[in-house]
Each structure stands twice: as structure tokens, then as C-alpha cells.
Inverse folding.
């Protein structure tokens, strides 16, 4: 560290980014173990992994930029694709689980999606 204030601020920002990313990854892992059903576990896995991996990649990007004067396009693309694909994949997995008949937790909120699916099936059914 060369001792300038801006380098100190960048170092603190990098450390905070890495710590926040690690916190989200650890809390997501705990959520996967502790939550009661598939849907809440998927929520913990996708939300926390998205924020955790993005935080760590942002910290790595800032480190490479500040310390080595490297703008890493791979890290920027990695951040972009993690932010884009992780929530979509979690949504699709939970939708497939719901349609396969995996039950919700009995203390969860009202299942409004079942009502929407029933109405949709009624509209698509031919009148007899």
C-alpha cells in the first residue's frame, strides 16, 4: 500500500465487498440447511448465492483494478451472468417442483398459484 487516502478507501471497499459476499454465502448455506421446504431453500440458495458471488467478484475486480491496473472483462461478464442466470434458474426449478407436486410447507402463505392454474385449466378446457 502506497499510503494515499484513495488507496486506503479502495482497500476498505475491497475488504467490505469480500466480507459482504462471504456473509451472504454463509447465510445462504445456513438457510439451505434450516429452511423447511424446497421453495424456501431455493430462495435461500439463489438470492444469497447471487449476492455472495457478485460481492466476491466485485471485490476481485476492484482488487485487480487498483493493485494491478487490470480491467478484467471476465469478472464483469461473470458478475453479469450470475446476476442474470441465478434468479431465473431458481424460479424455473421451483416452478418445475410445484408442477411436479412437491408440497408447500404447511405454515406457508396462501397458495394463490394453485387458484391461477385451476382458472387457466378451465379456460383451456373445451366446452362440453
Amino acid at each position: 500500500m502506497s499510503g494515499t487516502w484513495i488507496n486506503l478507501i479502495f482497500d476498505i471497499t475491497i475488504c467490505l465487498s469480500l466480507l459482504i459476499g462471504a456473509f451472504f454465502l454463509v447465510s445462504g448455506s445456513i438457510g439451505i440447511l434450516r429452511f423447511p421446504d424446497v421453495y424456501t431453500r431455493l430462495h435461500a440458495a439463489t438470492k444469497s448465492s447471487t449476492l455472495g458471488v457478485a460481492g466476491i467478484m466485485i471485490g476481485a475486480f476492484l482488487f485487480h483494478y487498483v493493485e494491478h491496473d487490470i480491467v478484467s472483462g471476465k469478472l464483469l461478464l461473470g458478475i453479469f451472468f450470475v446476476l442474470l442466470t441465478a434468479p431465473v434458474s431458481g424460479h424455473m426449478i421451483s416452478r418445475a417442483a410445484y408442477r411436479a407436486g412437491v408440497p408447500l410447507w404447511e405454515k406457508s402463505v396462501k397458495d394463490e398459484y394453485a387458484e391461477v392454474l385451476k382458472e387457466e385449466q378451465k379456460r383451456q378446457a373445451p366446452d362440453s
